[in-house]
Amino acid sequence: MAVFLRTLVVAVFLVLAYGLLEPYIERALYTMRLAAMPKPQALPVPVEGVRPRALRDTWGGARSEGRKHEGIDIFAKRGTPVVSSTEGIVSQVGTNRLGGLVVWVLGPGGQRHYYAHLDGYSDLEPGMRIEAGRVLGYVGDTGNAKGTPPHLHYGIYDTGGAINPYPLLKADPALISASSTDQAQEADRPTASGRQSAAR
């Protein structure tokens, strides 16, 4: 009887522990899956209503304090929704001196996507899992953009540093759908435990 009770207590403990740890385990698995995904070859414009033909390559332009521009400025009316260009995990929602109100998203291939000069945020919090196209915030002029025409500063950071988003945003839109289809098929594959991938 004592062995049975000990086994029962251990089983109950393990079930409760898994119930408490499951969200953390799922997030860790999803983060690993994101890192293993291929880096996007094309991305949708992350500002609603802005077409790729309206974009201008502002990468590398001179900025204050001897800096170079590490992203692209996408101009739109104040309050226009800013959407995530990829699926991923919101890693930061906050402010900084240059970007003002900013959101960081960890995306496929471990790339970090930076959305800056926002006028406000949508209902986000760090650690949230999001799909491509989810509203992150709204176009504004916060940070060092105060007084300039409202725009989104969009940057992508890889392991080697910043990369120019412009070619990805101007790439053939068919590459975006092909990449999304490949990622969806990967998410539908069962894991080693036989369960569906945690990505959805």
What does this structure look like?
The structure is a single chain. The chain is α+β, with helices and mostly antiparallel strands. Helices cover 28% and strands 26% of the residues. It has helices at 2-36, 166-170, 173-188, and strands spanning 72-75, 81-83, 88-96, 100-106, 112-121, 129-130, 135-139, 151-158, 161-163. Strands 1, 2, 3, 4, 5, 6, 7, 8 and 9 form a 9-stranded antiparallel β-sheet that branches. The longest helix has 35 residues, at 2-36. It is elongated. The model is unreliable at 187-200 (pLDDT under 50).
Could you give the topology of this structure?
Elements: H1 2-36, E1 72-75, E2 81-83, E3 88-96, E4 100-106, E5 112-121, E6 129-130, E7 135-139, E8 151-158, E9 161-163, H2 166-170, H3 173-188
Antiparallel strand pairs: 1-8, 2-7, 3-4, 3-6, 4-5, 5-7, 5-8, 8-9
Structural class, by secondary structure, is alpha+beta
Please trace the helix and strand order, writing H or E for each element. HEEEEEEEEEHH
Uncertain residue ranges: 187-200
Number of strands: 9
Bulk shape: elongated
Q: Kindly, what is the distance between the CA atoms of the first and last residues, rounded to a whole number of angstroms?
A: 44 Å
Q: What is the strand content?
A: 25-35%
Helix content: 25-40%
What is the average of the pLDDT values? 86
Structural features:
9-stranded antiparallel β-sheet, alpha+beta, 200 residues
Summary, kept brief:
This protein has 200 residues and is α+β, with helices and mostly antiparallel strands. Helix content is 28%, strand content 26%. The chain has 3 helices and 9 strands; from the N terminus they run αβββββββββαα.
